[in-house]
Amino acid sequence: MQYVEAGIETAGVVIVGSGFGGLAAAKQLAKSGVDYVLISSTPEHLFQPLLYQVATGVLASEEIAPPIAGILRRHREADVRLGTVVDIDPDRAVVTYEHEGVRRRIRYGSLIAATGASQSYFGRDDFAEKTFSLKTIDDARRLRAQIERVFAEAAQADEPTRRRLLSFVVVGAGATGVEVAGQLKELAKRHYHQEVSVTLVEGAGEVLPPFGGGLSEYAKKSLTRIGVDVLLGTFVTDIEHGKVTVKGRDGVEHGIAAETVVWSAGVQAGGFAKILAEATGVATDRAGRLLINPDLTVGGYADIYAIGDMTSLNGYPGQSPVAMQEGRHAADIIRRKKQPGTPFTYWDKGSMAVISRFSAVAKLNERITFRGVIAWFMWLAVHLFYLVGFRNRFAAVASWLVAFIGTGRPGFAEVDTTGTNVRTSEIRAA
Ligand SMILES: Cc1cc2nc3c(=O)[nH]c(=O)nc-3n(C[C@H](O)[C@H](O)[C@H](O)COP(=O)(O)OP(=O)(O)OC[C@H]3O[C@@H](n4cnc5c(N)ncnc54)[C@H](O)[C@@H]3O)c2cc1C
Questions:
Q1: Model confidence pLDDT, tens digit, residues 350-389
Q2: How far apart are CA 79 and CA 10, in angstroms?
Q3: Which atom of ligand 1 is nearest to the CA of 271?
Q4: Residues classed as catalytic
Q5: I want to staple 176 with a disulfide (CB 3.0 to 4.6 A). Which of 91, 216, 264, 283 is the partner?
Q6: How far apart are CA 346 and CA 353, in angstroms?
């Protein structure tokens, strides 16, 4: 390990993370010409809500993961660095980041931490090796490679083998789980023309729990209509190759065949959230999220802001609008457009989730809700609006036309760089 000790660099503002929160903060600072260093462990700005479309071949990965340096190329204020922040000394206001074995240190005037969250396996970390997750662009590519493999092998196989290969279990019936389950059914029916079994397992008593009531009921009925087996009030107790064991509320366990298991249940903030909590002495919730102050600062440090999925404040959901609004709020205090100490309040513009082609739910508030085709087009419009870059929007529309009006999957044409079936071979070897 090489240490670059010769003089700690100095920066007015350091942003950690190139996700929704980090990018929103950067853009807001640039409005007042405030210089900043943005450090991220990944070179891209990832549009996570569309990861499932990369995994199922609707979109190519570049359409939802443009390089952050490219997005900010016109910002004279921006100094974008690739690296993982591995340490912080809050009393000296110094962060340490690492890239390719080299450590560098920067003294900041203000720090905005936006490092997100990763998947939670609720104490069963061994499940990580046995399932596919959808958090990073590599996760989506890995799942896509697995999907392509099982369908290709199934096309040549005898009936029992075909059934085994085309068995999917999706754990967690939040928006991602519902979207993946629905897309797998569509992919099988409209693109591969094969029968698949898709089981959606959810511990709560309804699908899309944050929507609730009639919308959750509509989502469940729609999934059932397209052939997804929905198991509610059910928990995964074990996963081994080819089988998921689940337990219902009656306490009875049973196994479900599953060549592919997609895990989308729960989040856990670790990594820099943990480092920051330990360094500042700030408490975290059970998911490791920092319990930040109402003005988004961390503990007694007025120069450190933490935002987005790595934090917990007022029960706000772990969603992109929260991260973006928090990023702008922190930047506004730093650029003196808001008084230091101004509490953050979230403007909830509503939530939406896709079930399958032409079927979605949208909840603007408790009284205004939409379902079906109209909600699907609303979802399309909103996601197009928030996708970064004109070229990506144009490419996404073209891909959606091919996949949703036609039956093609343009994303499958992308050359895979992750190594096909990594997870499956690991499971087989275990
Ligand atoms: C599959 C999926 C679907 C989703 N769908 C929706 C949806 O439909 N609607 C919605 O509103 N929200 C959705 N979300 C949630 C939404 O994506 C998050 O709320 C949002 O990304 C949070 O933004 P963030 O800036 O806090 O973190 P992120 O966007 O996750 O960004 C974290 C950044 O920090 C970087 N990083 C992490 N650790 C370090 C480190 N130590 N050093 C340097 N950099 C680091 C990462 O590389 C990344 O750039 C979805 C999430 C997932 C995973």
A1: 999 999 999 999 999 888 999 999 999 999 899 888 887 7
A2: 12
A3: 41
A4: 179
A5: 264
A6: 20
If phi over 0 gives left and psi between -120 and 50 gives alpha, with beta otherwise, what is residue 304?
beta
| Distance between CA atoms of residues 132 and 139, nearest Å | 7
Encoded amino acid at 190, one letter? R
Mutational test site, ligand 1, from 44, 48, 385, max ligand atoms within 8 Å of CB: 48
Q: Which residues on neighbouring strands pair with residue 243, listed in sequence order? A: 240, 257
Q: Which residues contact 250 (CB under 8 A, 6 or more apart)?
A: none
CA distance 20 to 309: 10
CA distance 216 to 172: 14
Q: Distance, CA 105 to ligand 1 centroid (Å)?
A: 24
- Distance (Å, whole) CA 297 – CA 420: 43
> Can you tell me the distance from the alpha carbon of 291 to that of 285, in angstroms, rounded to the nearest whole number?
7
Return d(Cα 37, Cα 79) in angstroms, integer: 5
pLDDT of residue 418: 53
The two structure tokens encoding residue 10: 């100095």
Tell whether ligand 1 has an atom less than 6 A from the beta carbon of residue 319: yes
**Tens of pLDDT, residues 241-282:** 899 999 999 999 999 999 999 999 989 998 999 999 999 999
Ligand 1 centroid – CA 43 distance (Å): 14
Best probe residue, ligand 1, of 115, 132, 138, 311 (max atoms within 8 Å of C-beta): 115
pLDDT reported for residue 392: 82
Q: If DSSP codes are grouped into helix, strand and coil, which group holds residue 309?
A: helix
Q: How far is CA 87 from CA 25, 322, 430, in A?
A: 21, 26, 35
Cβ pair 306, 292 in contact under 8 A:
yes
Q: Which atom of ligand 1 is nearest to the CA of 327?
A: 25
- Nearest-atom index, ligand 1, CA of 319: 19
Closest by CA position to 118, among listed 274, 329, 315, 226: 274
Nearest CA to ligand 1 atom 44: 40
Low-confidence ranges of the chain (pLDDT < 70): 1-6, 416-430
Three-state secondary structure call for residue 85? strand
Q: Is 115 in the pocket of ligand 1 (CB under 6 A)?
A: yes
Residue 177, ligand 1, Cβ within 6 A = no
CA distance 69 to 82: 10
pLDDT at residue 366, as a whole number: 86
Q: What is the DSSP string of 261-318?
A: EEE---EE--HHHHHHHHHHT--B-TT--EE--TTSEETTEEEEEE-GGGEE-TT--S
The residue contributing the CA closest to ligand 1 atom 39 is 115
